[in-house]
Amino acid sequence: MDTIHLLIAGFGSALTPTNLMMAMLGALIGSIAGMIPGVGPTPAIAILMPLTTALGPTQGVIMLSGIYYGAIYGGSTTAILLNIPAELQAVPVCFDGYPLAQQGRGGPALGIAAISSFVAGVMGVIGLVFFAPLLADQALAFGPAEYFALMMLTLTVIVNLSGNSVIKGLIMGLSGYLLSLVGMGPASTQARFTFGIEPLTAGIEMISVIIGLFAIAEVFHSFGEHESKAPSPKLGSVYPRLTDLRDTVPTMLRSGLVGFLLGLLPGCSPAVSAFLSYDLEKRIAKKPEEFGQGALRGVAAPEAAGNATCSAGFIPLFTLGIPSSPPLAILLAGLMIYGLQPGPMLFQGNGDFVWAVVASMFIGNVMLLVLHLPLVGIWVKLTQIPLRILQPLILLLCVVGVYSVRNSMFDVLVSFVLGGVGYFLKSFKWPLVPFILCFMLGPLTERSFIQSMAISDGSFSIFVHSPIALTILIFAAGLFVFSIAFMRRAHTRRRALQLATTE
Amino acid sequence: MFEAEGDSRSHPEQLSRRFGQDRIGGIIAIGLGLVALGEAARLYHLRTGTLVGDHVMPGAIGMFLVILGAVLAVHAEGNTPTEKLPRGRTLVRLCGSFAILFAYWFLMDRLGYLASTFLVIIGLFKTMSQYGWLRSILYAAIVSVTLSYLFMNLLNIALPVGVIGVG
Which of B50, B62, B124 sits opposite A458 (nearest CB)? Predict the structure, then answer.
């Protein structure tokens, strides 16, 4: 009952005019960002995060969350109409969405995608309401050893975010840790890795790293690409027929549940659940041969699963501080910039904030449905904006965003340098998310380790004597092995699916 | 993998293909690891315990980077699939845009936000958007004034005013 009361109080806060406006603005900006090929949720959150620091933490995070799920909603539009997936999770949406658009049924495909997103998004948020406090309650007795174990658990996420090579992911993660050590050492307060460069003693600003690697690098990476592409001329009505709904609602519920359950696993990305749900629906379909030719269920399944995983991803993010996808990793940075430490104490220390954000997600999902169904014509036009016109403006926003945090031109320079580095890393397929994740968690990992060692006189037995730390470490080891096996399986299935679709 | 004679690929791409991209990455990781180990050795005398002090994380990270870098460098099998790096005019435009960004960093403190943004956006519209001069100047004037007003007046963000004294 407590949870319901807290949620009602959260609605009280989320329904204030300012917070409503932030949710609306976030959903709108996110939708636009998601629909512009080459922008997508991660750069959108990275670019706009510094500008939201002018707002309070609740308003800022409500807006950032809105940008996140708005961009996920919006991403399906380009996937269906242009066959351009803004994010990996939108790839299976292309399989059936684009053939539907070519058949002149882009409207119903967009409608089903929007309804699937709504159903799954709401399912995910309901799950968040009931699961998150349970998990947070268990995590009250956390000390340095438990926190360090939790950081090790977070490292297992790297496996899922490493792309094709776990070794590359680990190297990137370690490099991120290394960059986070630049500045004053926590134990001796002596400068580390500064090489006599005075501004480095204050450390590397998180925003500079995020903007450099995810926004500036992305702009240059898409240089000369993603020019506007004409969508299929006929869309058809965006409101699906009753028979279409009857066919797809069970798929939405099934995939939403699969997506939600997978989202509870720390490190399971929405892309994995989208591919698995598509595969599952194809396997249980009476006419599997329709998949890949323009089946509405082929749009509903990945869309619902991906969105449910996105919503469920807030559970490990809020309760353990573990992000399951790149945009959530950026959102984690946003929480930290606001002085909030996602993890066991967030629900206890900042309950008002958490419940207001959760309540705003319900409202945001309704807003998105309203925004996307009747206004589809405007969204289609947006997909026509050539990226080359937006690129200079995005770069200007990046500069102001970085500068405004500490009024430092050095931070701007760091973001440019990292933008260049990020460009080459992206081109050579080195995963960036493990880097940023470890950069963010580096200081907490080091502090908790040094404190643990100081308490135990340098003995590792502290991690064995604490039942919670030991359980987490065993779970982390198990999850690490499971993730590698799961990743290989998902890769194999994804390849098989792509092959089958292209054939 | 060696390229045929007369290959028109840009120099870094040729170099990376010849030595194997993963192998180069592995060697860079080893280099980073050695830097971290050097820093750990420098900080070691400030420790309060063998595993308590600012040297621990640099030491551990350095060690793992050297090991993983070596594994990647030794076991790199050919080249992983990469996207082609830009060539010709696109490469010039890309480098030009990067240079303009660094010029922005240099100019903003000196000329102030408005003037430097005006100059830089002309360059970016020319290189990235490929507009003509007249259109670039016109759009740059509109964009720089609008952004200045938005950030400095509406969002109250303190931006450099420079020697001209106008933000």
Answer: B50
